Amino acid sequence: MAENTDKIEILDLKGNRKDIKEKEEKETQIPENISNEDQKKKKKKKNKKKAKKLNLSEQTEPPTIPVTKFYSKFPEGELMDYGSDNLWRTTDEEKRHLDRIMNDQLNDLRKAAEVHRQVRYYAHKFIKPGLKMVEICENIENAVRSLIEAKDNDYTSGLAFPCGCSLNNCAAHYTPNKGDDTVLKYDDVCKIDFGTQVNGNIIDSAFTVHFNPMYDNLVNAVKESTYAGIKAAGIDVRLTDVGESIQEVMESYEVEINGKTYPVKPIKNLSGHSLDLYKIHSSKSVPIYKNGDQTKMEEGEHFAIEVFGSTGKGYVNDSLECSHYISNDRFVPLRSAKAKSLLNTIKKNFNTMAFCKRYLDRLGEVKYGMALDNLVENGLVDACPPLSDIHGSYTAQFEHTVVLRPCCKEVVSKGDDY
Q1: What are the chain's domains?
Q2: Binding-site annotation, residues for a divalent metal cation
Q3: Cis peptide before 385 (omega within 30 of 0)
Q4: Model confidence over 231-251: pLDDT tens digits?
Q5: What is the mean pLDDT of residues 25-53?
Q6: Are the CB atoms for 366 and 390 separated by under 8 Å?
């Protein structure tokens, strides 16, 4: 019989390939003169070594190994001190005690963050011109499901927000519906925006992909503005002050596109937001310009610092076919049996998390258009249509999830990429 020379290739997080199967075959060759007891000890030692190695450094490409194989306690995000008015929190004994308690409660959130990081590292590698947008989104979403160990009919872990891939003047809430064969092009500016959650603890984070260096200043303006917003955020900080910090940095940039110079503007009717359990858009909005909102950020709150910049008017309107939806906690009696059945599917799989039409297709729902419209009309599901600036403009987006801990703020979703 011919020897099986198949190789199983696994990449570590730095992209180094290792021939795992061939190495294992060599390690499993046991000399004939070793006793059965010694063989058992050798095998047990080998298995322990293999598990330790896998947990520390290896991930497949595309990502398929659940993050629980790497960690039991997940790593903190980037820690940042508060401003000078709140520096006393770092040494106050009561705040330190509260911080230790909160720190112990953040493992689920950090797990969701680790999934987001590993998946987007993969996304940076594989996204390129010529791919269909649906292929990009489904690769990202399937990787999330694998790493977070999501299950159908169980909303306790999985995607908190469908993978958006909004292009050019479309700033947010576009993901392909069935039959949409849009292809990513070299001159496109694409916003990759997806959320992950564990037991309702949500990570909402986004970045912009572009290939033509002509858009560098647009993308850098939004990225640096996002960091300015994160730096400004803190306990007792007014929301308008966060927006002012973002606006100041963004409006210091301009970008030349095809020989014409454009100022980079914040999109004023888009904003960041607070996050609650199983609720991605909660009660507080974080503006990206100075809007006069005197509402303060509070200790213990979670925020998505989400920033959009544009070369257009800096104002978006509904556009294109709706793909994103969010169910809510309202109760309205329904007459339609199909609408009742669809709502049951939505509640079982998503609870109050966002979903898209592709998710319903994946679950085997068919001819659900009228039933979904019925749920929207009755206020049981909120439609979130794509949002676009004027035709011919370009938009960019970055976003991180920040927790206002008693002693410091933690940028939970921070990674080496952004």
Answers
A1: 103-317+392-411 (3.90.230.10), 322-384 (1.10.10.10)
A2: 193, 204, 273, 306, 399
A3: no
A4: 999 999 999 999 999 999 999
A5: 44
A6: no
The Cα 415–Cα 192 span in angstroms is 15
What DSSP designation does 176 have?
P
pTM, entire model: 0.86
Q: With CA atoms as reference, report the closest residue to 138 among 119, 154, 151, 152.
A: 119
Backbone angles phi, psi at 177, to 5 degrees: -85, 170
> What pLDDT digit, counting tens, does each position of 108-160 carry?
999 999 999 999 999 999 999 999 999 999 999 999 999 999 999 999 999 99
Residue with structure tokens 């590292």? 121
Instruction: Give residue 392's identity as a one-letter amino acid code.
Output: G
**Residues contributing to the annotated binding site for substrate:** 173, 281
Task: Provide DSSP, 108-145.
Answer: HHHHHHHHHHHHHHHHHHH--TT-BHHHHHHHHHHHHH
- Rounded to whole angstroms, the Cα distance separating 149 from 139 reads 15
Catalytic residue IDs: 193, 204, 273, 281, 306, 399
The answer to whether residue 52 scores a pLDDT higher than 60 is: no
Could you report the per-residue pLDDT of 56-69, keeping only the tens digit for each? 468 999 999 999 99
- Between CA 148 and CA 1, with CA 6 as vertex, the angle to 5 degrees is 140
Give the DSSP per-residue string, 90-115: GT-HHHHHHHHHHHHT-HHHHHHHHH
- In whole angstroms, what is the distance from residue 32 CA to residue 52 CA? 28
Coil, helix or strand at residue 61:
coil
What pLDDT shows up at residue 366?
96
Tally of CA atoms within 13 A in the half-sphere of 102 that contains its CB: 18
